[in-house]
Each structure stands twice: as C-alpha cells, then as structure tokens.
Amino acid sequence: MSILNVSRRKFLKQLGIGSSALVLATTLPGFSPIYAAENETGNAMGAGQASFEVEKADHHLNIFVSLDTDGTTSIVCHRSEMGQGIRTTVPQIIADEMQALWSNVYVVQGQADKAYGQQNTAGSSSIRGQFTRLRQIGAVVRNMLEQAAANQWQVNINDVNAEQHVVINKITGEKISFGDLAIAASKLEAPELTTVKLKAIKDFNYIGKEVKLFDLDDIVAGEAVYSHDVQLPNMLIASIQRPPVVGGTVKSFDDTEAKKVKGVVAVIQLKPHTFPFRTNPLGGVAVLANNTWAAQEGRKKLKIVWDNGENANYNTASFSEELIKKVNQPGKSVRSEGDVYAHTYDPARTVEATYSVPHINHTPMETEAATAWLQGTDKSATLTIWAGTQNPQDAQNLAAKECEIELKQVTLNIPLMGGAFGRKSKPDFILEAVQLAKQVKVPVKVIWTREDDIQHGFYHSISANYMKAELIDESNVVQGNNKVADFWIQRVAYPPIAWLFNGKQTRPNANDLSLGFADTPFQLDNLQYETQEASSHVRPGWVRAVSDINNGFAQGSFVDELAVKANKPARQMWLELLGDDRYVDLSQGGFKYNNAGLNLAEYPVDTKRLKNTLNLVCEQANIEAETAENEGWGISVIRSFGSYVAAATKVSVINKKVKVLEMHTAIDCGITVTPDRVIAQMEGAMVFALSITLMGGISVKDGAVEQSNFHDSPVTRINQSPPMFVHLVESEHPPGGVGEPGIPPIIPSITNAIFRASGIRIRNLPVNKELTV
C-alpha cells in the first residue's frame, strides 16, 4: 500500500473540495490504477449526478482518503448502495482507524474500475471480505499524520497520538489539526503495512456505534438521486417489449400504430441472444420517445409475432412434480460419511419428507433503469452510463465489448438503488440502454415497468429437497452417547445458476451446496448428501440468500418434524443434533466446502455460536411460555455467509387463516460495524421472508410467466407485518455477512409456527396454496 501526493487540480474537482487541499490518496498493492472523472462544472459525480463532459484525470488512485487544509476529509466508497448502508459503513471503518472527526467526513461514490479489486456488491461480502483492508487504509493515513506532527515537534512518533482530527503531543499537550498537517503529511512516504498498528477493539470510535446514514437527509427529503432520476439534454426514453419466453425471437412486427403516438421518435428491434443466455438482454422491440408515457403507449400498440422456441413447453406445475420424483431416488453423492444404505430403517423412528420451493423474483421497489450516452467514434468515443448496479465492473466490461471500445473509454456512474436483492448484479438492462444509445447517438434511458421486472427477470430456481433421518432408540443408548439421531440423508434438485453461463451445468456446484445443504454441522456418524440433475427454462439468478432459501426451509422444517416425532421441544432437538461445542470439519466425506469464500481458520464452523444464537432468540421470544389456543411458535437456526442467525415466529391459525403475531431474530455476525444497519437488514429479512413464505412464487405456463404485478405477485403489506424484534450478539469475532443470512431460518420458523398452531405441515411453498394469508 502507498500514499500518493496526486496531481491535485482534477482530483480536487472530482471531490468538490477547495483548491488549497493536499490529497493523500491510498493505493492498495496489486491493483491497477483508477482514473477519476469530472463533469463539465468540475464537480464530483456523486450519486447519480449527471456528467456531460467526461474527462479522464491522470491520477493513479484506488480506495483513498483526501484531506483538505480546512480539515475536510473525503473518503471513497467503492461498493454500491442499495439500502444496506454501505456508503456509510465503508467510510465509517476508514474514519475510525484514521481518527477522523465524523462531522468532517464527506463520502464520494466510486465509479466502476478494476483498480478497486472486486466491486461486486453481493454475497453479503462487502464488510466481511474487506474489513481489515479498510482499517489498514485509515491506519496508514493516521500514521502519516502522526509522523508529520512528530517531525514538526522534533519528537519520536511514539510521543504523539492522533485523536478526533488532531494530533496531540503527549509530552507537551500541544495539538495540531489534521488540516494543518495535510501539506507535510502528503510529502511523506507511506509506511509498510506490517509497521502500521490497528486500533484495539475497545478503542473504536465509530465501529460498533450508531452513525447517521450519509444519504439519510437527501433520502428523507426526496432529493436522493436514483437511476430513474437521471436527466440529460435530448435524452430519449425507451420501453421494450421482450419475448414472453426465454429464448424467443421476433418473427415479424408492425410498428405503424406505435409511431402514431405523439412523442414516439423511433422503434428499434434489439438483437436476440441465444443459449447460453448469460446476463445478456433478451432482445425484443424497443419504442423510443421523448417522454415515458409516449414510450409506454407506443409499446402497447406494437404488433409482434413471436417465435417462442423450445422453452414454450415449460410448465412449472409439471416440472415441480418431476423434481420431487427425482429427489426421492438416489442421486450423485457430494458428501458421504458412514453408510446410510446398508442400514435397515425402523419406520417407528424414521422421518421422511420432501419440500419444494417455486421460482422467486427479487421484486425491488425500484425497478431496473439505466441511461447510456455514446459520444464520438472509434478511438475518440466515450460511453457514459448511469445505472444502479451491484456489479459495475462486469457492466463496464460488457458495455465496452458491445461498443467495441476500450475499457478506459467507458465511465459507469452508480446512483443509489431502491433495493436490488441480487437482481441488479445482472447488467442486461444496462446493455439494453447501451445498444440503443449506440444506434441513435443521443442519451437513452431504458425504464423497466413492474410487469417487465416480474415477467422478464432472473429467478431463484424452482427446487425440491428430500430429507430422511432415523432417531436413536433411546432405550438402547450406550452411556455417554448424547446423539439424538443418526443415518441422515439429504437430496436436492434445482436448475443451477451456472446453467445460465454454459448450459452444461445441471447440478449445483460445491459453492451452491455450501449454502445450507452439505454444510450441515450436525454431530452424526452416518451422513449422505446427494444431488439430482435439472435444466433451466427461465433465467436463474442470485436472489437474496440464494440456495440457502430452499435448503434452509427444508432443513429448518425437517428438524421440527424430528422434534415432533421424538416428542421433544424444537430447541432441544436442535441442540442435540448440533452436539458438542466444537469446530466442524466439513471437508470430510469428499465435500469441497466453500465457506462463502472465507478463510476457514478465521471463520470456523462453530457449533457453540450456533447454539448460543438459538438460545438467545428462544429466551428473548419466550417461546416456551404457554400460548393461546390456535397459536404457536416456530424456530430455526443456520450458519450462513459467515454469520449465525436464529429466528422465532409466533402465528395464529383460525379457520385456516394465518396471522403472524410476532417475529424475532438473533444474529451473531462477529464485530458489528453499524448496529442500526444490522437491525435494519434483519427487519428487512423478516419482511422479505414473509413475502416468500406466505405468498411468493413465480409460475410459468407454456414458457411465459403468469404473474404481472403486485395483485398476483404480492409482497408483504403493512397489515401483514407483525411486531419485529432483533437481538444482536456482542462478539469480537471477524465480521460475517448480514444482508442475506436472515432469510433461511425465518422461512421455516413461519411454517413451523403454523404447524404448532394448527397441525398443518407446510412442505410446499408458498403458504397461500393451502391457507389464507
């Protein structure tokens, strides 16, 4: 890592700070340069701010800190903000180690560039994957400021200490502000990483504390800029009629009536993309107009004849039945310990169940939108994009290929996102805007309607999970054997996301299977985990929690069924299955455990933390207290994305109508950087999981999605949302994920509660197929 005194003028303009500033730009080792971009006024392109004249600066920057002589500290956030608070949390970590005063911090949204390393804001990875590195960035800047002050006082650096935007002389008590040290500090070389000492946890100023969201005032005032808000001179709005079936193409179309709509400027057929589909646009016909209404009205008047292709035979009803049949037959082993097939099962002590989950859509409140502007030609061309995207580098790379220009000619600005949940990691909607801008030579904004979002998305795959286990015969238990069950079999079948990219992948890979399936940390001797094949007929995609959704539902439900069979409280069943406090080696039995990409030594699978989290939620919710007639509690727990989450839900079921009365979650995510954001994420997980469990699901008939808007693809409403409580486990372990881990245990906690209240066991989601919600 090094600190560069970068060329000032353009960089200062990008940050929007005074010309007197001296910049300390932090560069991480092993990464290539990033170039800052300015708009025609010389101001920073913030969240969605339009840039009309893009100029490439000659500064080599990365994740960086800049310091003005008046003390203003600008910190870049290199990840995308979609409501999770990352634009506050990243600077919060850096500012803490830097000993900056939070009121002096200004946050700058980083643009797409490989110099940042991995910018993909997904997999609950932003903090758990970069916590130490972000701290090092702040510590390096703090060290340089302390060295500059020590030089001025002619004392050893150990005799000074940075604290709340000043450096203090520990001998004399004198103080020098960070701003007054900016010039001197910028002339110093950065220290080696090994010589920079990070703060002790007890000395954190902001980490673990409540910090106001950087964008909060603008969001509340309605002044925050999202992708839909981007406005450019001479911009056209595009509304696109896409093939109703994935892989379908346009045979012919008549745009006569569409062009009669006032405001319609052009009708353009988009190029189709054939199998494998990857994250490319689906094709179709676009209507371009000078306003949104005209574009959408013109689209309604298109007359298109489609060739729907081979996927027109796809129906989810029959496909789900096929998956259920498959998982009830032996499959391909991915983890095997002991021998589950040589054993003769006792029906009196054996539980066997199959669970299914339908396709699920992301349904962010802000639908997809992107603006693109291609200026010039060939080597002089510049492509500027404004899009709320979770994966800006991927979008930038694909856009460059689409326009046949170099990566450095593409500037991708990242506005705020009104939700994403994995949907906006796919750049198809961005590439649609790029394709159209390439043809019309003016800025084009593509806007997806709610119907577009529901009918043409990337869906969580339809799935089936099979579970079988035999309870121990407690009358014959050998003394010292605390096991409650043995001979455990699991199978799963669903179209994997990898199918999207190569078409040959018909089974989930080790990464998929490390999400709540073959990573079961139960203390059993005989285990068998198997997969079956399944091809996709819609575009599968990462939905919040990914395969933890169906795996968590199956596992959490099955443990409850075992508890009922054994006539034990559900909590006791979980604790006995988890067994002794220990670190679990999941690489046994041939399984290539992924651990969400985390170092296993730093993030071991710890059953003690799982049990503690489960006990906490059960005690806080008081689940063992007597409930009224027709009421019941359901619980579940999981380790997901490096964190431990437990859920408890209370429901009533009267006349086959479900009412959710109370919901609790407990999370041990290691060091909690911003507690309020963790609480908000868990509350969001409860709402998201309620939608999936009670009424979520996408059905397909003759290849086309049947749902179209909230009337038939509903999300949780206020009247369906019960009191929600989040309990945080104090921990000094490294940070785990937060955005996704809440979903998997919440889903079965709801259905388990339904069983406890009514005796009705829900094995096939959503609930509203069987009960009124």
UniProtKB/TrEMBL annotation:
It comes from the Bacteria. This is Xanthine dehydrogenase family protein molybdopterin-binding subunit. Pfam families: MoCoBD_1, MoCoBD_2. Residues 221-310 form the Aldehyde oxidase/xanthine dehydrogenase a/b hammerhead domain. The keyword S-adenosyl-L-methionine does not apply. SMART domains: Ald_Xan_dh_C (SM01008). InterPro entries: Ald_Oxase/Xan_DH_a/b, AldOxase/xan_DH_MoCoBD1, AldOxase/xan_DH_MoCoBD2, AldOxase/xan_DH_Mopterin-bd_sf, N-heterocyclic_Hydroxylase, OxRdtase_Mopterin-bd_su_IorB, TAT_signal, TAT_signal_bac_arc. Keywords: Signal. PANTHER family: ALDEHYDE DEHYDROGENASE, BLR6219 PROTEIN. It comes from Colwellia echini.
